[in-house]
């Protein structure tokens, strides 16, 4: 007797992405260094609380530096640090950013959208 295949309802499967929350927040910061935590959370599609935690991790490890700009924060990325992922070997933050960055003729960087 042959087993009958039951169609899988993909909408019930747990959602996941290839890019971690840490990378999503880092890329959101690269897109808009003056973004608020609310804006970064929306861009990374995670909660504000998670965004605060991720930013704290990134700052503590030296990947992101936060400075006050009036009543707001401005973030700067250290592109020379390693990605801390054994699967990418000696890859640097700048290598990750190159995957989503396009440079124009005058050398200004424009981040390409991750989502269509």
General description of the model:
The protein is of the alpha+beta class and 116 residues long. It has one domain: Arc Repressor Mutant, subunit A. It contains four helices and four strands; from the N terminus they run H-H-H-E-E-H-E-E. The chain has a two-stranded antiparallel sheet. A hairpin with a 2-residue loop joins strand 1 and strand 2. The longest helix has 13 residues. It is extended and about 65 Å long. The termini are far apart. The relative contact order is 0.13. About 4% of the residues have low confidence.
| N-C termini distance | 45 Å
Q: In CATH terms, what is the architecture?
A: Orthogonal Bundle
CATH class: Mainly Alpha
Model regions low in confidence, pLDDT < 50 over at least 5 residues: 104-108
Please bin the fraction of helical residues: 25-40%
> How much beta, percentage-wise?
15-25%
> In what order do the strands lie side by side in the largest sheet?
1-2
CATH topology: Arc Repressor Mutant, subunit A
* Biggest sheet layout: 2 strands, antiparallel
Question: How many β-strand stretches?
Answer: 4
Q: Which superfamily, in CATH terms, is the homologous superfamily?
A: Winged helix-like DNA-binding domain superfamily/Winged helix DNA-binding domain
Q: Count every helix, treating DSSP H or I runs of 4 or more residues as helices.
A: 4
């Amino acid at each position: 007797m042959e087993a009958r295949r039951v169609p899988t309802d993909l909408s019930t499967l747990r959602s996941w992405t290839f890019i971690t929350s840490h990378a999503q927040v880092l890329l959101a910061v690269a897109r808009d260094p003056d973004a608020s935590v609310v804006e970064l959370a929306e861009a990374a599609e995670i909660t504000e609380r998670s965004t605060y935690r991720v930013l704290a991790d990134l700052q503590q490890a030296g990947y992101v530096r936060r400075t006050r700009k009036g009543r707001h924060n401005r973030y700067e990325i250290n592109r020379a640090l390693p990605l801390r992922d054994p699967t990418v070997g000696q890859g640097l933050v700048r290598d990750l950013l190159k995957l989503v960055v396009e440079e124009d003729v005058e050398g200004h960087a424009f981040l390409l959208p991750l989502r269509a």
